[in-house]
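Sequence only, no structure available. Ideas?
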Amino acid sequence: MITVTDSAKKQALRLMEDDNKEGYFIRVGVEGGGCSGLMYQLTFDNEDKEGDREFFDNDIRVVVDKKSYLYLIGTILDFSGGLNGKGFIFKNPNADRTCGCGESFAV
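Reply:
I predicted one. Tokens follow.
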């Protein structure tokens, strides 16, 4: 399960509306790279792919590819608009360590 906070929901809906992406959903994933070995991906998508896992939380549809699912179980998707940085934040209980910027992790 991927949990979506109220602030992440609000920002995602605003971005999708601004980009005329009605009917899209949040796609999250993991790919190799970054200073810790794995990097988070977040995009807006409107096409399902074979093997996708689908979650609904806080009235938001979140889709995760089969490979990334194992790395993201239990993750909370949040959004911070503070002075120290602005963007989506992944709070991942599976990460053993993360980089300083929060964009990559290791398990």
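The first strand starts at residue 3 and ends at 4.
Hope that gets you unstuck.
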